[in-house]
Every structure is written in C-alpha cells, then in structure tokens.
Prior knowledge:
Blueprint: H1 2-12, E1 17-20, E2 23-26, E3 40-43, H2 49-58, E4 63-66, H3 70-79, E5 82-83, H4 87-93, E6 96-99, H5 104-112, E7 126-129, H6 135-146, E8 151-154, E9 157-158, H7 160-166, E10 169-174, H8 180-187, E11 191-198, H9 202-230, H10 235-243, H11 250-253, H12 277-294, H13 299-316, H14 324-334
Parallel strand pairs: 3-4, 3-6, 4-5, 6-7, 7-8, 10-11
Antiparallel strand pairs: 1-2, 9-10
Amino acid sequence: xxxxxxxxxxxxxxxxxxxxxxxxxxxxxxxxxxxxxxxxxxxxxxxxxxxxxxxxxxxxxxxxxxxxxxxxxxxxxxxxxxxxxxxxxxxxxxxxxxxxxxxxxxxxxxxxxxxxxxxxxxxxxxxxxxxxxxxxxxxxxxxxxxxxxxxxxxxxxxxxxxxxxxxxxxxxxxxxxxxxxxxxxxxxxxxxxxxxxxxxxxxxxxxxxxxxxxxxxxxxxxxxxxxxxxxxxxxxxxxxxxxxxxxxxxxxxxxxxxxxxxxxxxxxxxxxxxxxxxxxxxxxxxxxxxxxxxxxxxxxxxxxxxxxxxxxxxxxxxxxxxxxxxxxxxxxxxx
Length: 335
C-alpha cells in the first residue's frame, strides 16, 4: 500500500524531480541532435506500431526498427526502415526511440532485458513509450532510464488503427515538461493531438480513463444498434440518426460495430485487425486495479470488464473489441 501511495503522489507531482523508493532523480537534460529529422528507433510493429513507424518514414525520418515478428519486420523493411536484431541494436544506433508494446511484461523486457534498450542506450537519449501499461511500471522505467542518463516518457495513444494509419492519433504524454517539446516534434508526425498531462505516469493514467470509457461506450453502441435493427431500422439510417443526435460518440460515428455501416473499420473486415478484445480486457484490468486502490466507484467499468472477459472465453479474444455486437447476436441465438 505504501508503494501505491507513492504512485498516487508521483502521478500528481508536476516537478522534474521525483521521489522513488527513498531516492531522488532528476529529469535528464538531453544532448540529442537539434535537427528535427534525426534518426528514430521504433520497437513494436503490430497493428498500431507498424503504421506509426511508417508515418515517421513518410515524414522523412530515417527509422531503425525491431519486432519479434519476422513478417512485421519485413513489412517495415519494404517501407524503407532499417531492420535490426534486438532492442539493444536499436538503442546502439539512435538516441530517440518510440516503443509500442502489448503489456507490462513486454515493456519491462524490452527496456531492461538482457538485449534490452538500457543495455546499450546512449546518454541523453529520449525514450518514448506508447504502450498502454500500469502507471507504476512507467514510473519504474523512468527511474531505470534515469540511471543510464536517459529520459523516459509515457505517451499512450487513442484513435485506433485508422488514426494510426492516417497519422491522426491523440498522444497523452507524461514526463518532464522540459523534454516535452522534443517528444512533441516526433509525435506530431504520427498524431494530430499531443497533450502533456503532467509527470511520468500521467499519460498512462489518462489512457486508463479513456479506455474504460471507450469499453463502456462500445457496449452501449452495440446494444443500441442491435435493438434498433431488430425494431426494423436500416443500420446506416440508424447510425446517421444517432450520430446527429445526443447519442453521438466515437464508437458510433468512427468505429461503428455493425458490419457494413462504415468502410475500413474492423467490423466490416470480420473484426480482424484493430484492438483485440483480449487487450481491452488487459486495459480494463488496469482500470479496475486503479479503481480498487483509490476506492473510486466504477460499476459500469467493472461490468464492461466482465463482459469482455466472457467474450474472450467465447472465442472473441483475438477479434476487435467492437465484436461486442456479434457477441450480443450470438447470445441471442443461444437462448
């Protein structure tokens, strides 16, 4: 509990000096190159990371990449990236790195593992993590990076695969204010909104809140579209009505869960790609852990967590989380 209390303090702290486990560390003043097109490293080339790295290349950056998937690496090689064999190899070549990884253990391994970033990181490097993880892990990574004279910032994203591909993501950034301008220069090539939320961990705090709201709204959108269609409304007409009325939300107008209503979204591609249900379960688990620690009531967040966990057990784990619509259809057929 003492550690969680420290975490809460750190998330609220706005200065560049942080207290962790009885020690003090200061934000590193970078000695990176001043030119905006300095080489960038990118680790984690999945549904989100791959398009993000490609946007850096499209915007004129030399990008060095690594991923455990050979196919993902080859895809980026064809796009013009320099592919290397490990996170350590990335860190040995560049002094600005973006990571986009699935969960806490992946981030810890990529940064602190035997072939991790910190084994070869250059002093003064800027390390930007866009994974969605526990804020406490971000705080710990920042401490580990500081021991290597490198700056760690958490910068999770919102917008989904379409925004990742079009460069329209929103970045929620936590870290030293003095380093935010340098991070923003890089992130603006992959997103249209880059928001400094405060100290290390506050970006993740904002993302946990965002994804809990998103999970709840997607279930609501799925229930509403399902009921309206059963009432005889044509799906696209119902979407147009809802999206020009007080029910309008991102889950309806940008990422509609009903197949055929919008082009290019996962629901129109058999719920392939996008944000997997199992990852939404992971994010809702983070939210519930925070809610329990802070004694913050989240009845709808808790229910959404349960629904997506059931979906995973019913075969939807690897499908996009908007498959909640199909899950409701399946439940109807089973009754």
